[in-house]
Amino acid sequence: MAANPQKLKKVKEFGRRDILMSMALVPDSPRLLAGSFDFNVYEFDFEAEKPEQPKRELKGHRSYVTGVALTESHIVTASYDRHMIWWDRESGEQTKRVRAHDKWLRGVEVSPDGKTLASVADDMVARLWDAKTGKPLHELRDHKPMTPHHYPSMLFCCAFSPDGNVLATGDKVGQVCLWDVKTGKLIKTVESPKCYTWDPRQRRHSIGGIRSLAFSPDGKTLAVGGMDQVGNIDHLGGKARFELFDWQNGKSVHDYQADKFKGLVEHMAFSPDGKWLALGGGDNGGLLIFFDLETKKEIKTEKAPMHIHEFAFSADHETLYAVGHNKIALYELKD
Predict the structure, then answer these.
(1) Residue 195 phi/psi, 5° resolution?
(2) In sequence order, which ranges of the chain are alpha helices (DSSP H)?
(3) 271: how many CB neighbours lie within 10 A of its CB?
(4) Contact 242, 256 (CB under 8 A)
(5) I want to staple 105 with a disulfide (CB 3.0 to 4.6 A). Which of 31, 56, 121, 187 is the partner?
(6) CA distances in angstroms from 186 to 114, 138, 158, listed in the order given
(7) Residue ranges of the domains in the chain?
(8) How far apart are CA 310 and CA 322, in angstroms?
């Protein structure tokens, strides 16, 4: 039975005192690892008698844990403390700690074959790593360190193509760079400037940026997520938005702004058949949106119980696990 977004329903919700900023789902299991703003990493088992109580804690970072990735033998985490840590998946012991960047680390992703890691940070550098040894492979530099208005920029997110050959990276002012993973060379750039708002008068400040990236299953389409232009930049008051690119030809093929939800699109995922796209994020509240890529219409919209930072689907896509501000939520997409 295929997952059906029209049947989306929340089945469980667990309260937290912290903000969970990142997560990775353990394959073929009801377990997930989540990075917290309390500097720790927690493992949850949703078949346990008390699933809200962590099965174990990994302590070692000195600031917000903004990225969690799973390799064959390790849990790899990234933090605002500028470090990446390799933890043994079985014992939970640290096996490697690397100062990976010079500014806040925004995330870490693992390639589809599990052999390569990518990290992005506010030093505006993306780095590729050997997932097993932690050896640096390539340093990717093209994002500008300053915005057009002469303020420090930020490099928020990255995503691997399904074949693992291309890495996309997205920054604050709406530039996406696409890189050859094997050589570390820049392939192409595309622009999504509506993700960025600058207030030249009242606040002399900016907001927004590309907060999420996702490739379609065939690797031909790149989804770029963020927030539309904002009137009051002190609030996440812009409409949730994403833009679709035929990235190989550098063309924008669809630009979407949500009808009823405002805030950042923090995470996105395509369905296995490429027919729909799931979006999660929010402002003070949370949002889940499922978008039909053939009709270019919303399939299902849901007010989430919290601002969602990241989500993941089970292997059959019939269960969605989401983490964010003070909550973990589980949804089902089946009859």
Answers:
(1) -75, -5
(2) none
(3) 20
(4) yes
(5) 121
(6) 22, 11, 14
(7) 5-332
(8) 6
- Which amino acid is present at 5? P
The confidence score (pLDDT) of residue 199 equals: 74
Q: Tell me, what's the pLDDT at 204? A: 57
**Residue 257: C-alpha distances to residues 227, 290, 295, 298 (Å):** 8, 13, 15, 11
- In this predicted model, what pLDDT tens digit does every residue of 94-112 receive, in sequence order? 999 999 999 999 999 999 9
CATH topology of domain 5-332: Methylamine Dehydrogenase; Chain H (2.130.10)
Nearest-angstrom CA–CA distance, 284 and 274: 30
Mean pLDDT of the residues in the chain: 95
Provide CB contacts within 8 A for 107, sequence distance 6+: 22, 66, 67, 78, 119, 120, 156, 157, 158
Q: How far apart are CA 64 and CA 1, in angstroms?
A: 39
Alpha carbon distances (Å) from 156 to 174, 183, 255: 10, 22, 20
Per the listing, tokens 């009051």 go with 232
Residue listed under structure tokens 């790593």: 129
| Parallel, antiparallel or unpaired: strands 308-313 and 297-304 | unpaired
Position 229 scores a pLDDT of 80
* DSSP result, 88-108: ETTT--EEEEEE--SS-EEEE
**Cβ partners under 8 Å of residue 49, min gap 6:** none
Strands, sheet with 116-121, edge to edge from the N-terminal-most edge strand: 105-110, 116-121, 126-130, 136-140
pTM: 0.96
Check: CB of residue 209 under 8 Å from CB of residue 172: yes
Place of tokens 């912290």: 18
φ/ψ (deg, to 5) at 194:
-70, -10
Give the Cα separation of 172 and 155 in Å (integer).
Answer: 6
CA distance 328 to 250: 37
The residue count for the chain: 335
Structure tokens at 323: 């983490």
What is the token pair recorded at 156? 């928020």
Can you tell me which residue has the tokens 């950042």? 264
**The pair of three-digit structure tokens given for residue 126, joined into one six-digit string:** 């993306």
Q: Which residues of the chain have pLDDT under 70?
A: 1, 201-205, 232-236
